[in-house]
Amino acid sequence: MIDDGDTFSPKVRRWRDVFWLAIFMLHLIALGFVLVLLGLNRFKKSDRLNIDRYTNRVWEHNNGLTENYWPNYAVAGGVGAALGWIWLLLLGSHANLMMKVSVHILTTYLAVISVLCFWCKQFFWGVAFATGAALQFLYVISVVDRLPFTMLVLQKAVKMVWSLPEVMRVAYAFMAVMLLWMGIWSFGAAGVVASSRGDLGRWWLLVVLSVSLFWTGAVLCNTVHVIVSGLVFLVLIHGGRNASPMPPNPLMKSLRYAVTTSFGSICYGSLFTAAIRTLRWKIRGFRSKIGNNECLFCCVDFLFQLVETLVRFFNKYAYVQIAVYGKGFNRAARDAWELFQSTGVEALVAYDCSGAVLLMGTVLGGLITGTCAGVWTWMTWSDRVIMVGSTAMLMGMVLVSVFFYSPTEDYYR
Questions:
Q1: Residue 59: CB partners within 8 Å, gap ≥ 6?
Q2: Which of 218, 230, 237, 298 would be a feasible disulfide site paired with 270, CB 3.0-4.6 Å?
Q3: Minimal CA–CA distance to 110: which of 286, 284, 289, 371?
């Protein structure tokens, strides 16, 4: 048995990955300032701060204002939060059904969105969503034999989630924090959409803002991972949350470490783990269904080995090591992967598709959110549908992931 005194003691906790902590905090401060400027520049008055004169681009004659689009983003925030809350509640009573909906409805929904984009003469986005629908269908076909096992894992995870009410409070608290940041972020994004820049300039600004939002959302989501992992460790090692050796207020103990000494490691890992994990799922699925095409198999196998090498240094299981031992991210990721290999658990982890299924639910929630905001935008500002819809979709994904994805995933780790 591991002594939690040797792992949760402040004496063995040091600040890790401080450089990335500083980068993330500076990024938040600088971006917050820029977002407020962008939103205010078009709030109730066009070019209030005279920012337009600092560009050499040819301007459009656009009299859009921030308040024209900010309510659309408010709808996206409300829908995303509501979907995350509803899904989390339904997972407690209908986990198997909700997972099947995530897996099978996503392909259909992507195809429908693709048709709507073609109907609106948005050919690029139509092709993009059609390609996404095809890739999603192929992936589901490639892992269909693993879905029953995945459903059992998720059912067990959900059952454990509902046995710890502290987990729900963590999700609610971080949802409130994310909604607060969403208010600032959407204010600036609405100012960008309303600006007189050309479409290319607006899109570049929105891409930069979206990358920042994705990182911020991932940091908050993974902070919940670390908090819940620490709480679960304490509960399991003492034999239950009501056991006599259980330390007082274990949630606050885990929270304190997550937002102080380990926060830099969370910021660092959040930059890479989501992208690498998604790429690994896709390549693993295609690799198992290639067949006898040796040339294609060699190419995919090379990519697979490359991604597997990256997974050794950037994997989601590092957050458990961070929560329990307070390690830096790279060391935690390597130690977690070596532990899996030495115990033979790696094969079980590779067979499990729980993370992919949860990601499907997150994407579906984002698509529904983007559709709601996009439909409202189309009724008033038809030339801004894709801009508002795509950014609203990202908002929905981030909100659903904090509420739905974070607490559940920690338990099957």
A1: 52, 196, 197, 198
A2: 218
A3: 371
pTM confidence score: 0.82
Instruction: Walk along the chain (413 residues) in steps of 10 and give the mean pLDDT of each run.
Output: 50 81 94 91 79 57 77 91 81 70 83 86 86 85 78 73 75 87 92 79 86 89 86 74 68 86 89 68 60 63 64 73 84 81 69 75 89 88 85 90 63 46
Looking up tokens 């591991």 gives 2
Spatial CA neighbour of 264 closest among 320, 315, 330: 330
Q: Could you tell me if 103 and 361 are in contact, meaning their C-beta atoms sit under 8 angstroms apart?
A: no
**CA distances, 334 to each of 199, 220, 280, 319 (Å):** 44, 23, 17, 11
Using CA atoms, how far residue 389 sits from 116, 241, 291, in Å, is 12, 43, 39
Domain boundaries defined on the chain? 12-35+66-412
Q: What is the dihedral of CA 295, 140, 392, 379, to 10 degrees?
A: 110
Category of 17 on φ-ψ map: left (φ > 0), alpha (ψ -120 to 50) or beta: left
Spell out the SS3 assignment of 257-324.
HHCCCCHHHHHHHHCCHHHHHHHHHHHHHHHCCCCCCHHHHHHHHHHHHHHHHHHHHCCCCHHHHHHH
